[in-house]
Amino acid sequence: MADTLTKPNCRPLEPGSVCVHCGLRPLSVCAALDIGELQQLEMVAHVHCLTAKATLFSQDEPAQFVYNVTAGTVRLYKLLPDGRRQIVGFALPGDFLGLALADRYGFSADAIEPVTACRFSREAFTGLVDRKPHLLRRLHEFATHELSLAHDQMVILGRRNAAERVGSFLIGLRDRWARLHGHSSVHVPLPMSRQDIADFLGLTIETVSRTLNRLAREKTIVIVPDGVRILNVARIEALSEV
Amino acid sequence: MADTLTKPNCRPLEPGSVCVHCGLRPLSVCAALDIGELQQLEMVAHVHCLTAKATLFSQDEPAQFVYNVTAGTVRLYKLLPDGRRQIVGFALPGDFLGLALADRYGFSADAIEPVTACRFSREAFTGLVDRKPHLLRRLHEFATHELSLAHDQMVILGRRNAAERVGSFLIGLRDRWARLHGHSSVHVPLPMSRQDIADFLGLTIETVSRTLNRLAREKTIVIVPDGVRILNVARIEALSEV
DNA sequence: CGTTGAGTTGACCATCGTCAACAGGAGTGG
DNA sequence: CCACTCCTGTTGACGATGGTCAACTCAACG
User: Fold this and answer.
1) Model's pTM, two decimal places?
2) Which residue ranges have CB below 7 A from strand D?
């Protein structure tokens, strides 16, 4: 799968054919729709481009829109009153934001790097969902998949030590990139900061840094400018073992 | 709401009227169905009674059935190869098991106390779901609600200390019992063991015991035979503050 | 060339885990 | 009826993992 799929692209495109030609379609919720339905969807869609650090939406705010991420990485997080942050997930291209179709957002979302996303008014989208059971079925599949990932993350947060958390994180991201690119690679891009990784894994930035560099010192990984390269796949997979 | 709703009851009932008279219906997925549909559901239902410690299903095993818990408490958990356990949730009356409608179970489930559950063959149930978009919509609501609870639990596991975890747990259970009984109470039944609480909160049994007894010593709660009674609601709510 | 922000590293420390002993109730068998 | 075991929960002593605080490097940027 070409890299253009996951790189931002905000050039205007000829109306009525954007969704049909979208390379991410088979991986996104849109796969549930036929060509006619795609055109209905496109009529209520708006291609939205965000710069790094831009906010898509904030927790508890009225949920005016739902989103389909088409390029870049989004961090999803909850804040405690005293400022502690827990990242509940990273949304990659193909991921849908607003699965709950609820009145208010359950978490905050902002762009880690330049992001493009198809934005739909929640009202229009839920209208479409109500008329298209196949789309609802697809949303439900996405929701239960997210639930399963959340359960895995609960195991990581509740029962694994720092090295295991970092290992599981790398393997988890590797597999998600593999799905997106159509093939697995030992090169794992990490668009998020050490602080983001720490807030996802329930650790501190220092522990993440130490753990990654320990893995590098023992030749399990190499730290490269935009992420890591896995040298000893078996070792990392053992750390992340279910 | 009467307590009979949540107490096991395995007497045979006259066919065709069980679901219609089920007091849990408004709280369960069945609320999406009209009387005719309920009778269709009942035809593929089987009231299942389990003793304490009985297994409903195990992780990775083919998902032959889905369940509606009608009485008792079920623990849902994942195991690591070395035996570490993470409880990903407790299912109370009204909760649905098998939301994913997937080929295999994503976690194991067993009865903490005597449990009754309506059991459906997954095949028959998914057939009904495919014919009834309202039921699918209801399942989706349940799934996104579970996802939201999972996100809350991720915050607890990733970013909260022992006292906050225990406090959040008590408030969370209090609110779930309140929903079930129709009114809130300072009496919070704890049908699960200290070990279960520990494995849910990412702590050890000793830390759970110490934390509960510290709360009792400072007169925030009283430990009673079947759970706790909250004396200082404000204190516990402050601990569990979002 | 100075500033800023991300990341790294070291020294120290607190929280929670580990290990061990013990209490008390339920169930069992003599 | 009592002695015994078993199981759950409690409590104390100690230690390790990961957090805190601080200093430092380095690249990007004005």
Assistant:
1) 0.95
2) A 161-163, 202-204, 206-207; B 193-195, 205-206, 208-210, 212-213, 223
